[in-house]
Every structure is written in C-alpha cells, then in structure tokens.
Structures
1.
Amino acid sequence: MARVHLWSSLRRFAEGQEVVEVEGATVGQIFDALARTYPGLAPAIAAGLSVAVDGEVIANSRSAPVRPDSEVYLLQRLKGG
Amino acid sequence: MKKVHVTTTVNGDPVEFLADPRETLLDCLRNHLDLTGTKEGCGTGDCGACSVTLDGTLVCSCLVLGVEAEGKKVETIEGMASEGELHPLQRQFIEHAALQCGFCTPGILVAAKSLLEQNPDPSESEIRFWLAGNLCRCTGYDKIVRAVQDAAAEMRGAA
Amino acid sequence: MAKDEITKGYKLVGTRPNRPDGLDKVTGRARYGADFSLPGMLWAAVVRSPHAHAKIKRIDATKALALDGVKAVVTRADLPTGLEGEDLNLQENTLAGEKALYDGHAVAAVAATSALLAQDAARLIEVEYEVIPHVTDVDAAMQPGAPVIREGAADYSVPEGMHPNVVRHMEFGHGDVVAGFAAADIVREETYKTEATHQGYIEPHACVGQMGEDGRGEMWVCTQGHWYIRRMCAAVLGIEAANLRVTPSEIGGGFGGKTTIFMEPLALALSKKAGGRPVKLVMSRAEVLRATGPTASASMDVKIGMKKDGTVTAGQVMFRMQGGAFVGMSPIGEALPCAFACYDIPALKHEAVEVLTNRPKAAAYRAPGSPMAAFAVESLMDEMCRELGLDPIDVRLKNAAKEGSKSSYGPVYNRIGLVETLEAAKAHPNYAIPLGPNQGRGVASGFWFNHGGETSVSLAIGEDGTVQVSIGTPDIGGSRASIALMTAETLGIPYENVRVNVVETGALGVNEPTHGSRATFASGKAAVEAARQAIKEMCRRAAAEWEIEPEAVEWKDGAAQPAGPNAGKFPPMTIAEIGAKMGGTGGPISGHHETNAGGVGASFGTHVVDVEVDPETGRTTVLRYLVVQDAGTAIHPAYVEGQYQGGAAQGIGWALNEEYVYGADGRLQNTVFLDYRIPVASDLPMIDTVIVEVPNPGHPYGVRGVGETGITPPLPALAGAVAAAAGVRLRSLPMSPPKVLAAIKAARQA
C-alpha cells in the first residue's frame, strides 16, 4: 500500500495521522481511496490537490502511476506563472 | 464630434483620413490607416511602444493628436525596412535574440534608429538613457543594448 | 551558429538560430491582441467601481443606450446564475453583482460603433453606490473589527476561531523544531513584508469576441492559454465549450497574468446582445493595473536556528498573504513549499493563512509565491551569515539540498542542480571583484517546481519533406524556436525545415497555458514523441517499398535506412522522398502526442548582485548582476539567457521600486507606468548569466524549464547587498529611495 503523507492541517480529517496507507495504482485511485476512508478529506480533494510521488511533483494528473511502495505527499494545488 | 480631414505623409506615401479631433495619432495610424505595427502599451507617454517620428522628431504617437499630423511626415516601424532589406537594427535584433514577446520591439527599433541618426557611436550609457523611455518587461534590456551597439558598429562600417 | 555544448553530441540542440517569428516582430507585422479587426466590428468600454467596497444599489443605462451608435449594454443581470467555486469567482470578477469588491471592479460594459463613442456611453451609465468600510492591508484585514469582505467564505482548511477574512490555512513540516532551535548556537526571528506588484506586461489585455444568438462564437485574444479562455468564458456565460472557438494572437508578455480571464466574456456577451456583431475590447493601462493580475502582498515571520559553522538546525515560517477579494488567489500553497526548498534541514514548520482584502483578484506571477518566501527566508539566512561572519555561498553549500535530500515540503529530491549553481557562482569573477565605499554584495538562491501538464501536439510531414508542428502553448519568449530545434534534431533535418505554429482551440486537444515554465518542456516533449511516431510510420513506408520487415529499417540523418547488412542493400530514403510519395504509399503521414506530461525536473538558481547606495538620497544603483541557473539542457541558449535576464530584471523592480500604493480611501494611487515604475534601460547594468546544465532525466533532451526561477533570488539578494552597502537592513519591500534614506537616518540617530 502506498504511504500518503498529509500536511498538518489535513491530519484532523484522518484521525490525526501524519501518514496513512491506502491502495491505489494511480494518483486518482489514491485520491478516491482517501476520500472513501476519510470522508473529511473529500472537500480538500475536490478543491484540487497536487501530489509528489517518489520525489516527482505532479500538479494535476489522476492517471500518474503509483507503485505499491510509493511515497506520496499531498500538496496544495500548484499554479505556475 | 465632427471629424477633421487630415492629409499627411506616412512612410513616404501620401495618405488621408478623417480624424475625430480627440483621436491620437496612434489611434489614427492603427484604426484609420491599418498600420498596427505601432503599439499602445500605456496611452500616457510612459512606455514608448507607440514611438514614431514626426518630421524627423521621435515622439510618442499616443501624445500627439491625429490632426497634428496634417502636412507633416510620419515614419513608423512599417517603413523601416527598405525594399525588402531589413535595417541593420532589425537584423541585429533578430540575431541577438533581443526580443522575447516582441511587443515593445517596434517602438524600440524606431527610437534606436533615431538615436543612431543623431549619434552614430553611442556609449552603452547613452543607449540606455536614450531608450529609458521605451519599456521592455521581458529581456532586462541586456540583449537590446548589445544589438543596438552592434548595429551602430555595422552602420559605421566597423563591423 | 556556434555550438555552445558539443559534448552532448547534438547537432541542433544547444545552437542559437534566428527565431521563426523574428521577422514579423521587427517589421511590425506580428499581430497582437489589439491588432485584430473584423468587418462590422463594434468597440467596447467598461464602467468600473471608483470605490474599494460598495453596495451597488442601481445601474441605469438609459442615457447611454439613447446615444446613436450605442448597440448594447451588459450588467451582471445579463449573466447566468447558479455558478459555484472558481467559476463564480471568475463571473463575479468579470462583472460585480451586489457589491463592488475593489477599486476598478467592473460594473457594466457597453458596445458602440467607435472606441470614443463607447467611452462616452460608459460615462453616461449611472451607478448608485452605497460605500461601505474597506480594508486593503493584509495584517489590518485580520484585526478584530476589520470589515468582513465575505461572510462564511473560509474553506475546509481554516481552524475555528480565526478572523472571517482568513479563508484558507495550511500547515506542514517535519522533525522536531523545538529540539532543532535548542541545538542552534544562534536563533533569529524577524518579520518581512512585500507589497503587491504587477506582472507589467507591456501589452494590455485585448480581444475581439463574436457570438450569435445561438450561443456559438469565436474569440481572438492575447492569452497564455486559449483553452483556459474557452473553458472560463463558457462557464461564465453558460455556453458549451465546443461552441466557442478561440484563436490566440501573438502575446505581448504575460508572466502568469494572462493565464485567466478578466474581461473576455464581456466582448462575447455584448456581441450576442448586439445581434452578433463582433466586439473589440482593449484595456487601458490604468485598467490593467487596477483590475488585472497583481500578485499577492505578504507579511511573513521567519525563525531560523544556526550553528556557528553555518549548519541550519531548524526553520519556521508563518506567512500571511492576501490575493484580493476572492478565495484561493493567494499563492500560500506555493510559497510555503518554496520557503526552505533550497535546504536540507532536519526540522521545519510551515504555516500560512490567506486573507481577503478589497484588492483586485490576484493572478499567477512568475514562480507564484516563491519570490516572497525567498525574500523572507533568504534575507534571514543572509543576516545570520553576516552575524556569524560566514561566506553566504559556503553556508548555502553546507545546507544545500541535493539528490536524495528530503525536501522541505516532504518528498525526496531526484537529481537537482542547486550545488552546481552555487559552485559556479562562487567561481565566477564577479564574486571576487573588490567593492568600494557605499557598495555591497548580496547572494541568494531560489527554487521553482516547474510543471508538465495537459499537452496535445500534432505534427505533419509535407510533400517536400518539410514538417509542420501544431502546438497549443502560446509562444511568449521563443518557444517556437526551441520546439523546432528539438523536432529537427529528432528527425535529423534542418531547423529551417520545421515550422511550428500555435494553433486555435479547434485544431488540437486541450492544452494548458504556457505557464509553470512548461512550454519548451511539455510541448517540446510531446513534439519529440509526435516526431518519433512519424518516424515509425516513415520507416514502415520505406520497408513496404523495399519489401522488408519494418523492424529492419532505422531512421538516421533524416532518412530511412536498412538497419544492418542483413536488411538488404538499399540507398537511404530521405524524408523528402517519403513525403513526395506518401499519397500513393498509404496517405498523409503525421504524428500526434497527447499527455499530461510527467518527468518534471525541479529548478534552482543562485544570484550575485553588487549595488551602490547613495547615502544622501537613498537611491540604489545596481552595479553588476549575475544569474546562475540550472536549465537541465539549454535548447536555445540565447532564449534561456533571456529568461534569466528578464526574471532578474523583474525581481530587481520588485526589490527596489515596484509596489501597489493604496490611499486611505482604498483607491489605487499609481495607475500609470510613470508612477508604477518598472525598471527602464538606464536603471540596469548588463546582466551576466551562467547556464548550468544538469540534464533532467524526465525529458528526451534533458529540459527542466527555465522561465520562472529567475525572479526569485533578486529580492533577498538586493536586500543583502543594500544592507552591506548602507549598513541598514530593510525587511519591507520595495527598498525605494525614501525608505532606504529613512533607514539610514534612523541608523545614524541610533
């Protein structure tokens, strides 16, 4: 299962956990699993999130692959100039 | 407001147009004569994107009324290349990558040509102060100044 | 064309050919937003609120509509209702509803047969306002009693008990900061402020819109992203995206400010009301400054712990940012991860809030959030280096993030080039030049994520073997040249035989804008993939002709060739020969690539600046400036240098001069370039550049993207240089002459 790191202000929606483990082969599946397991996270996910998967920042792709041992960090949706 | 009939010369060609007395020369060039190479960046004479020469004097065409062109000679960016051959400034700007978005480029070329007509061998500082009325937000001016220096050298026959 | 870098073995990548649009741009032929006109076209003007915060009681357009030649007026009542989220924000910014939220907020628009008539008509539209209390400063907006701009606007992230103007909150970190600060030899804590600045593109927003009664329309517009224009206009007007065809003009600068809409739906709405006549809408400079773009203003607390040898033990930031009267516009989500991104620090805590104010809806501006964050963190790093008598580059090298470091925002870095930029800066002659009296040197580093994103590219082989590439990312700084170079390199044909066109929304799948430093990275990567697809097909055509297996054909030097001695003996079949015959060998040959581009490589840079401060006037003169940045691979080095120099110049303006000045009445006081003074040619020296190349493994030619990082280091680098030159540390930007002079006088009296 991928290890998903939540930024501090999201942790109150996930029983205070900093890292949660969810199933998913893509970023989109990870998001869906997070929203299912921790409904409090759904508004944050719906508002749009970026992620870093194994060091690579992915701004807006649900289809980006996630490996079973991937390290995923949630980030606020990134914008560029 | 009743329009005024204006007869003038633009890039050597005789032209006529009807101008609202409130319209600027810039508006007339762009909207009545379809000479859209001259740009509006501010409308207050601060950015130089609308630079043209009027009887040989470098002006911001947004600060000149269209009716003031009556009987005068106007030169714009469209007249800078002669018979298919680019002016050395135009060529050097392309070769130096002295433009990014290119919006300020017509005004800067017109202003730089005016500089080199008065001072064929300007120092870097003279170029920078002459062009201080032409804003560029993309380049940081480095490549623009170098392009003007090289064009000046080429025109002096030193290149 | 001299090859800058021959060791990579590229023929074209790394050369400096003339850009394909150069001729049009030096002759005045290139068509920008306001240069487009259509038969029967009307002109529009916009009525804007003169108040920072006011209830709109009544709008009466009777007198305007009575003028001969006035064809249509639109107000918010003409737009559909029921929008939510950012769509509602966009609609509300296009036209105010019950309240005007900032000075310059659009209230109504009118179309007439000439520009002057439209302006006359706009003045005849009567708007009755009830002025209500306003707030424009980020710190003031959080004070008890500050006027609430929107009740209940806070999103899920805001903890209970915060001021109603606080609408977003973010917090993250790692390690134990308490232990980290305890382990430090010195701990310093300071507050820094930056004012809002504008992207300052020289071309004001401009468009021509046409829409019939059936809701089908077209638009010609200067934009960084025409699919965004399409989606946003469709949302604001309640029409279907496919019914709006958007063609981008040449663009006169954007820097993030042209990634969204400000007035484009008005042209379409007016056109529809005026019986489908096309409507041209061009902003004045004052409209651009009052009602588009600016970036956020920021108030930032930073705390850093450092050992005597320069090792950073812990860091902590609290950022307060306002992005105007609309939720979600401040770059807190970018500023926080950028704050300590250059460093490998064991304990970090980041917190930020977004605060609403009566200011315009902020837009992205080159590396959104990163310059402010760098000003705060890099300034304090510099102050501590000076306190400890340490070389600022050595301290940065000691703490620098590198491959394998845990980044400040969590993930572990892949291959990055910060250390290489620091080493190149230290080795550069500028770093050793002796300084005179009243002169000082500043150093700072900066970071930007870079971005891939939604990208669609199409490529077609011509009958003569020349190649046409259709891209959807508007070319602002020479990306057509760099994409042509990569395409030609891949195909093995001359640069001149590739023409890259930026095409309209009907011609490709959805493309994100040219933003996030992505055009050369993402459209370039997609163009290379499209070329590879065409190569595969050309090899197949040659194989069929030679009656051998396609796998036995390889592509080399612009021609299909037998892959080895076993494939048979055939002379190379050139792209021109294949193109000439393709009608009879299976039809047109093209390549496509659609992707949400991954493989993004992070960007780092280090700047060194020398200044002289006049102690009598407080004026800062930039003596010399050095930009060192990792490009990954510089496809067209001249335009990479241009990005470095342009970013530095914008950062210098932000540091020394530029700011939004609001009066007590909440009105913007500097609405022309004379008063909002961006750097002019005589303000700047030549800007030296060093292109570091640590190739990005996620791109076929190693591109990272170079557009944004360069604006980040100038703010703290200039602050450090001014501190060294004048003996006063300014923690509030801009460091304009009056502020520097006041600081010098205060220091003398102390």
2.
Amino acid sequence: MSPPSPGPPQERFRLSMLIYDQRYRSLTIQIVFMMLLMGFAAWLVDNVITNLRAQGQDFSYRFLWQRAGYDINQTLVAYDSNMTHARAMFVGLLNTLLVAVLGCVLATVAGVIVGVLRLSTNWLVSQIMAVYVEIFRNIPTLLWIIIFYTLVTIDAPAPRDFAGDVPLAAAWFGGAVVITNRGVYIPEPLFANSLGSVSLGLFDVSLDFAALVVVIIASLYANKKLLDRASARQATTGIRPVTWWKSMLILFLPVILALLALGFHTENAELAGFNFQGGVHLRSSLVALWFGLGIYTSAFVAEIVRAGILAVSKGQTEAAASLGMRPTLTMRLVVLPQALRVIVPPLISQYLNLTKNTSLGLAVGYMDLRSTLGGITINQTGRALEGMLLMMLIYLLISLTISSLMNVYNSRIKLKER
Amino acid sequence: MTRHDKAFVRDAIVPERAPPVTESGVWKWMRENLFSSWFNAIVTALSIYVIYSVVTGFAPWFTNSVWQAGSLSQCREILDGARGACFAVITERWNQLMFGFYPRALYWRPTLTAALFLVAIAPILFTGLPRRMLWFSAVYPFLAYFLLWGGSIWIPVTAAAGFVFAALAFVILRRLLPLVAPVGAVLVALIWWLTLAAPVAEDLSWIAPVELQFVRSDRFGGFLLSLVLGLTAISISLPMGILLALGRQSDLLIVRMSCIVFIEFIRGVPLITLLFTASLLLNYFLPPGTSFDLILRVIIMVTFFAAAYIAEVVRGGLASLPRGQYEAADALGLTYWQAQRKIIMPQALKVSIPGIVNTFIGLFKDTTLVVFIGLLDPVGLSNSIRSDTAWTGIYWELFVFIGAFFFVFCFGISRYSMYLERKLTRGHN
C-alpha cells in the first residue's frame, strides 16, 4: 500500500481569483447581478410606496368585497350590480374564457379544413386556401374584430326588417339563426322534464346538462372497454370481432334515451314587437370577437396543420402500404401520430395567443376580465395598481396552466431515444 | 453496307414528334391539376363559382368608386344610387392617415426619414451591397430621431457619442484588463449618458445652435406612428431577445432564473395590459414628479414584449444545435462570447429566422393596439375621421385601405424571410 498521492497543490485564495478564476468568476457575476437586481427592485418598491403615500392611498385588495354597482351585459352566472367587485371579476373571467373556448374551437375547425385543403391536388382549391391564409394572417386581428363588428352591427338588418308582409331580411336555416344588428339569436335548448339545478357556491349547475355529460362519459368508457376486449381477442385468436354496430349502439342509444327522458327540445327566437324574444341571444360584441379572433387564428392553425402533415415523410406512408395497411389505418396509426407531434405544440401556443387576445374585446365593448376588473372596477375604486396587478396575475395563471399542460403532453409524446 | 434478311429494318431515326395535345402544355396541366377525377372536376367547378361570385360581388364596389368628393353625402350624389366605394375619404384625409397631426409644413421630414430608411436597411437586408453602407445604417437611428422629433442636433449626437466612448473604452481596456473591458465600456457609457451628456449637449447647442423645429410626440399619428413604433421595437428587440435567450440557457443560476421570470411573465400577459401599465401605472414606479414621453413608454413595452417572444424563438434555435458544436468550440479554446459569435449564433439564428420574422410581423400588427391608450394609429384615426360629420358612416373604405397597408408590409416581410431562408440553405443541416 503506497501512501495516497498528494492532491494538486493547494493555492491560497487571492482576491483577484474572483475575476480571473473560472470557478469564482461565475459566483462574482451572480452576486453583482443579484445586487443590481435587488437594488432595482427596492428602488421600484420605494417609488411605489412614496407615490402611494403622496396620494394618500394604501395597497389593499379590500375593494374586491365592496359593492360593484355596475351592470354587466353578458352574464353566464347570476350577477347584479349589488354584488361585489370580486363577483364582477369572476363574471368577466367567465366571459373571457367563454370567448376563448369558442374562438379556439372555430380556429381549430376552420384551420384544419383550410390546412388540409391547402394541400389539395386541385390547384384552384389550394390557391384559394393560400389566399385565405395570407389575407387573414397579414391583417391585424384588431382590424378583423372591428370588421366583424361592423358586419353584425352596421351592415346587419334591424329586427323590424324581419316583419311585414314583404320582409327585407330573413332568418337563416329555417328560422333557427337570426342575425340582427342587435345581436345574433340561435335556438335555445330546453328540457321539458328538467331536473332543475344545484348551486355550487360560486355558480349554479344545470342538472340536465350534468346528467348528459355523465351519460356521454359513461358510454365513451363502455365503448373503450369494448374496443379493448376486441383487441385482446384479436391478439389471442388473430380474428377481430365485428364491433362497429355495438359501438354505435353504446355511443348513441344512451344519449338519445337520456334526451328523450329529459324532454329535450329547442326553441327558436320569435319576433315580438320591435325585438326578438326567446332563443339564445348572442351579443354582437361576442359574435364579433369570436369570429374576429377565430378566423384570424384559423389562418395560423392552417399553416401549422399543413406543416405538420408535410413533416411526415413520404417513406412512412409507403412503408405502411408495403406492410399491407389500408389508407385509413395508415392515416390513423402512422401519419396522424407523427403529424400531431409536430402540430400540437404550436397549436397550443396559438390557443394561448387567442386567449390573451380576448382582451381586445375592449374595441367592441365586450365585458371580459379586462373590462370588468381592469376597466370599470379600476375606474370606480381608483385602485389602478392593485387591479392591474391582479388582472395580470390571472392572465398569467391561465397562460401558465395551458403551457404546463402542453409541457406534460410534450414529454409524453416525445420520441424515446437512447 | 449490310444486307438485311428481314423484310424491313429502320435505318434512320424517326424524327421527334410533338406529344399529343392532351399530354402537353396547358391541357396536360389542367387535366392533372384541375380535372384529375370527377370529384376534382366538381370541386373545380365549385371553386370557379366561388371566385366568380366574390369577384362579381365586389367588383362594382371598386369600379364605381369615387375618388374626389368632400363628404360622404357628396359621394352618394355622384354615385346616384349605384353601389360603389367612396375612396374620396382616402384622398381627402391622405395626409392625416399618413402623418397624423404632424405639422403640415414639416411633412418633408418624415418623408425624408422614410427615404433614408430604405438606404439604411438595404445593406442589412441584401448582402450583395457594399459593406461600407453599414456605417450609414449605424448612424441612421440618431438621424431618424433628429429628423422626426427635431430639437437640437446635439442631443442625438451626444447620445451617439456614448456608444463611441464605450467602444473606445473597450478597445483601451482590452489591452490593460481584458476581463473587465465589457463592464468598463458599459460603465463609461452609462456615466456619460447619466451625468455629462445633457450639460454637454446644452453647451454645444449654445455654441453652435443647429436645430429643427421640435415636434411633440402626441402629434405623431397614422402610419407614421405604426412604422416608428414597429421599426424601433423590431430593431431593439432582436439583440435584447438574443441576450435573454442566452441568459435563459446560462449556467449562472440567478441570471437564468431572472431571465425565465421575465420571459414567462411577459409572454403570459396580454400586450394590452402592458400598454395600460405603460400609460397608467408607470408613474407609480418612477420617482415622484418624473414623467416621460408616452410614445417612448409604449416603445419600451412593445420592445419587451417582442424580446420575450424572440428569446423563446432563439432558444428553440439554440436547442436544435447538436451538443458537438458547443464542445467543438470549447475544444478550440474559444471564450464564451467568441463561441457564441463565431459558432453558435450563426447557426442558431439561421434556424430561427422564420420564427423571428413571424414575431416581427406579429409585433408590427400589434402596433394597432396603441389605439386603446389614446394614440392615433390608423385604426384610431379611422374612428376620429368617422366622428367628423362629413364622413359619418364611412367604414369599409377605411378598413380596406388600412388592411391593404398592413397586408403589403406583412406579406412583404414574410416573402423576404423566405428569400433569406433559401439563400442561407447550405444543402445540409
């Protein structure tokens, strides 16, 4: 046993090593950076305190529990002006989420159709779709929102145009959809044997819809079980049992039965006096914001879809064909899973953009989060700092939630390499 | 001469014949691209019908359009019941849509600035031009400020001098203390700007008063405002975004964390809330009594916004580089900044060009949002034009004009990015 060899010669620490020695330099940089950062933050906070004191204000969120005193023209949950600012904020947040979800659905549907047609072998079709994409994505979304708002307010017929022996305007789809300059009316779903609703504290939930959702989830689950069993059978015997009619039965029969049991029917809007009554009234601002954002974003979605499909190399399709797969199976098992890996991340960031852009509802007077908490509440209480910070925080939470979901998805679909 | 025992052997080449009509030229193209199957033929017919109805629907509006009239009612008189656009509003309000409320006598200044911009941007966009032109591009921002806002020429000159002093300090310090050279250069510039620049500029303008009439920021409007906001933010946000991306990849924990917080915060909130912060809240964060120009505040916010997005795009580009590139740079003994400049960035930026350009296009379109804080960009002007009784009720003409302006710019930028991508393609990754 030889004695352990002495380590490298121990250098004594010198002050100059803070700059010249790689090991200490990063520490020096970080400490200096940290000090600058904290100094800057302290300066900002100090300024805020001084400014607030000069105006005789404090920093508090107590205003949220005061009476709001203003009306909101579109409420998804019960609200009146005697409720608190917090409740108004909640109503605004729901309106923001409503238009965001509607916009995302429209953007996805229109975008996927346009993106696929853009790859059509028909030259004329692909050119029309190229024009669609270029027009909608190269003009600011704010302009599109205002354009759609003009379409549904200035250029749409007034309710009185629908009356008379020779009406100047007619409803769409046999009276189901009525577009007037006071908003758009669509049929209202109604339940004759309603189960009523149950209050969840913040809002009420219609038991009818809840029951429908439960039925749909249950039938989806049963269908998955059925398909799993068919696959297991195929794995053991090599023959796949015929399942399509069972699937149809499981998926549709319970829903139809539930709808019948609840007495489901729809009610169209009818002209009564100077305005339409009944039906679901979509305000012009909602429609304009929905279509403005949705169509604008659909142009981006179309490009994403196109790029995703093109990203799957032709060899993959050919390999699947040489294995004897039918085109539908090739699409489902080979092309789509690979295309989705390319499509989904940018798609979600488009959803995020759309959600943030709902704040442009200001241009058409849509009562969203920015307009309730970030608008009227701030004006009434004078709490600009608190209100803006809270609003930013809420938007930030929405964004971070969506992007963390995306990260989970990304890590799940990531190619497993060495 | 060979003898044939067959009945016929061809001994001359048959002259080439043209392919059948259906297999060549326009017929072949149409058959393959428009009528390859009965389904495709139906789709083609439908498409032609759609195009026909769109064109016939809109054509009269354009062909009947009125270009010279004093008001909307005058337009309607000229049209006499026919459908037609009243583009007279564009001709009558042309100057306002272009320059906002910029003083009429000084329109030559923004016009000259725009013309010089083309000269300044050309060597950056097209590498074929002489490299010496880049010096003009470097001077241009200060010149543009002087031309647009006016005031004493010594303010932009002293501001530019800060950069010159910083460069001098860097060159000198690099000989003496190489490691503190960047810090020293930044310090010199900061000291110059914060303490000496203002008094020196004052003295110089007293000695040699060269100045243009000062134009306040609130006089800016129309497309001038959009372009000033967009171009300034674009040119500052690119370097800032690259620095943020590097900070996010950095080994230094605190630097990395602050970059992440900054990027995620900015990307998580709508631009409009940042603009409201600039217009409403900034006074809370500044020492009492200070206030600065609204346009400058907006430029800062829009720049931050774009920089955070560019940082993410560049991060994608950095992540796409194989590790070997970093290791090769280390093996060659390059310092961090040398490696970034000569090895990493040229490759990473090339990959990120489409994303960066898309961010720029988005930023340019987002300049319309300043209408919400009371600046008169084209969209804001369209509202104020409509509030004039002569033009009440005019919508589509203004929308078409503003939309066409943005379309031309954004479409042009995206085409340029495609050209750049093609030019930089090396045939391998």
3.
Amino acid sequence: MMRGIWGREMVALMLLAALAPMGLAWLWSEGLPALARLVLALVISGGWHIVFMLARAQPPSFAGAITALAVAMLAPEELGLLRLFLGISFGVVFGELVFGGWGRNVVNPATVTLAFLGFGFPGFPWPEFVPPVAWAAIPAALIGVAAGVMPAGVVAAAVLAGAGAMAVDLPVAHVLPAAGIVLVLLVADPVASAATTLGRWLTGGAYAALVLLFATGWQGAAPVQLCVAAALLTSLVAPLFDEIAITLWLRQRRRRHGRA
Amino acid sequence: MARATGLWGTLTAPLLRENPITLQILGLCSALAVTTSMATALTMSVALTVVLTLAAGLISLIRRHIPDTIRLIVQIVIVASLVIVIDQVLQAWFFEISRALSVFVGLITTNCLVLGRTEGFARHNPPLPAMVDAFGNGLGYSLILLVIGALRELFGKGELFGQTILPLADEGGWFTPLSLMLLAPSAFFLLGGLVWAIRSVMTGQAEAPEHVAPRQGEPAE
C-alpha cells in the first residue's frame, strides 16, 4: 500500500477513525479517570516515538495513538504511574520501535504491553466494560474492514467461530464483549496479523479457538485477561499461518505449472 | 578494532570487546536459567570459570598428543571429569545452592563456551596463554551473569544476595516486586537490552542489516 494517498500514516489514521466510536463510547462511560489514562498513555507512547525519531531518524507514527488507546482501555486498573510507564515503555520500545517502527514489528506493541503488565503485576483487577462500549466494537470492525485497513479474514473468521460457539451453546457469553473489543484493538491489526488470505482466516479462527478454550477451561481469569492472552498467542502463531499458506500456494503452483 | 596484544590483551578482550555471551552468543542456556538470584549466578560463574581455566590448561598441555579424530571426545572427557569434581565440591559445602543450580552445573560439560574455548584456543596455544584466555572468558561470562542476576533479583525480589535493598510493600515498605523478573522471559529481555546497549556503544559489534527498506513515497514494485 504505497501508492497515491495510501501511505503508512493514512492506514494509521483510518484505523484511528475506525476505533474512534468505541474509544468515544468508552470515554463517555468511564469519564475523567479514563481520559487521564488515555492522555498518560499517549504522552508515554508519543515520547518514545520522538526519542526514536531523534536518535534513529525513524519517522513517528499515528500508530502510537492506537497503541495508547488499546493500552488505556485494556490495561489492569489501579496500576499507578510508574508501572504503567514501565509497561508502556517496554511494549512500545521492545515490541515496535527497535524493529524499525510501525510496519516492521512482529507483534502488536499494545499486546506486548498488556502481556507484560498482566504477567508482571498479577494482583491488579482487569477492567470491565459496559455494554455500549462492547457494541461499539461492531461499527469499529465494520469501518475498519470497509476501509480495508483491518484484515477482513481475521474479523470474519473470529465472528463466524464465535457465532458457531453460541449456536452449540458453549458457556462463553460472558467473554464475548471483551473478546470483541480485543479483536478490534489488538488482533485485527494490519501489521501483526497474518498477511495472506488463508493465513488471515486461520489467524481469526485461532484467536476465536483460544478464547473459547480459555473461557471454558481457565478458572478464575477475567474476560479481558484471557482475551489478551489469546491475542498474544495468536500474534505469535500468525507468521506460521502465513508460512503454511505460502507453502500450500507454492505446492499448488508446482503441481499446475511443473515448477516453483 | 584495535587488538591489544600480550597476556593482558588476552585476559581483557573477552570482558566486553569479545564477550562470549553478548558477542558470540555462547552459553546462553545456563545464563538464562541460573540468574534468578545473585547467589546462584555467582556460584555458577565461579564453577564455570574454574572448570574452563583448568580444562584449557590440561588440554593445552597435551595438545600435541591428542589425535585429531577423537579430539572432541578427549576434550569432553576432561571437561566432564572437572565438572564432576566441582559438582561434588558444591554438594559437599554449598548444598542449598547446589540444589538451586540443579542440573546446570552438570551441563557445564556441554556448555558451548567451554568447548568453544578449548577447541578454538587451548588446542593451538601453550598452557599459560590458554589458561589466561579461558580465565578471561570465564570472567566475561561471569560479568554478564552477575549483571543480569543483580537486575533480576533486585527488581524481582527487592534483594541482593538475600539482603533486602528495596523494602517490599507487603512488609511495610514501598516497593512492589516485578514478578515477571523471576520468570525466564525476563532474562531474554534483559540480555537483549544488554546486547543492544553494548552494540550501541561499541558499534563495531553491530551486524550489517539483512534487509534494506524501500525508499518512502515510491511504488513498492
């Protein structure tokens, strides 16, 4: 996507626009403390982008704001300034900026931050969401997919798998709101999810399968916690799905044309 | 890179400039596993340095008599014998630490760092330079282990060598431990950060980039 207006920043801005309804619904329901968290996350994330711009001439990206929004919404509550700073710094620097900035990262920096905070400080409560925020994940996914900045395969596979689980009466209704929010914030990320069509469907399916597995088998985990764990594992296996898709394609090509 | 010569150069080169862990990326397995506290890290460092130095001396002494075809077996036999001695010493006098180190003292036998130095240096050099080189590499390994061990114990438990440095919030202090530091991934992160820091200062150690990014604003193909 390097032609015309579709540069990297355009993708980041479209993602921000897609997430805006959900972010605004969340700010509306949570009020000032949420706004303070968002501003803090924005400042820390933006600060590191500027540091890397000055030190390495890496252009800063609006993607830092997406990371900040995801962290502010999903991070465990009552962490305090120092721990949030540590977690966001770790996620943004080691998850994204050392690899060369947004677009070259292997995992979503917000996922890294949340996994770090979750494993590092296990005693803090995970956030709960009121229904309007969860419903706002639907327009977010629709705008993202329609604008082509969220991988449609990932969203479709996850939604189909979730609907299938509801149809066969698995006891997962309590995690669905969190699963939807995590899906649009962390999993349906154009960079860290798979890049091939088959790989994307597999990624979405894997995310849904992990959420279902954790929801039924992980006793005592908060909905957001298990969805973040599922998102982390999904982003780690996404390159494998790409590899599988490319191998299958090469094999098919060899069968049809007799050479690779 | 300017190379210091003589015994002093052989001793100091592996400390930072040719550090076995951060430049050669050898001996990582034990470096990651035993660094949850300073006590185990220090014991492991001493054990490895002693084994490495003695093994290098012995192998260097008989270097003209080792048949090339079985040289690895001979080296491993010598290293393994020394490791067994060290292991017995630890079990006799430092039983608790020996328990904490579990299998990793035994695994010094197969540590890439030990075989790398005996195979790469001691086999071709007289005993004194060989032992100095082995000792220097042992010190380089110890340095990294102690740095990572100190960071992990300080931020994971608020202690150094079991002495409380940062009073814990549970016991009336202010410090909440970062329990991630006691898990294996944190050793990877710290080691990665350390390699990064060293290579930013000593730019000669940095590897050439594998890929060059396409220029901004041009069609991708």
